[in-house]
Amino acid sequence: MGEGWQSVSQVDLWLMVAKTQWGSVWCWHLAAAVLTVVLLSNQVRHGGYLLIVALLSQLLTLSLVGHVAMSVGIIGALHRINQFGHLLTAAFWSGGLLALLNVMQEAKKASWGEQATATMIRFSLYGHLAVATVILSGIINILLIQGWEFPSDTQYIRLLAIKIVLVGVMVILALFNRYFWLPRMKNRSSLAKRFFWYFTVAEQLIALLVLLLVSQFATLQP
User: What is the mean pLDDT of residues 161-176?
Assistant: First the structure.
């Protein structure tokens, strides 16, 4: 609608965009983002609950725009619900890795080692559910957007294929951590702790690559 960065200062253009469905959704998205920054910068009473609402609102608004806008009616509503579930569980998986690294720090302490290991085992249960939901909802998204045809000559499909491979690598690393390194940490194996850390950091880096990929092919024509 504009002519590059020189159009950013045009108020009329901003008002025109805000009147579109995409623009109205992003107004709410930006409002939730601003609220998130405010809550993180200040100590507000019941700020934790408000922060959760603000974060969920950002995921919700993201699930209302993009390729899901191609679907209408009941299918469109189900598509948006599926997309929200996909974003929510993906955020839990990738964001939970940061908390997992914090728990790993506690696991290094002799007094908290057993409790930290037990916490990681309990976390892995919810991690399994999150990963399974990410994969299932991702498959549903692909079928709703692309159908059963996957032309390999389009940039969208090529980037999507790279994303699928990267997510597969993340799954392998997560399974290896849970069923190979984590049981060995109970025996206070320094090697297991070190590689558990390496694998978790690798998962985070790959998650970042996936996010960058999605930000690219989400703007492309399927």
Answer: 94
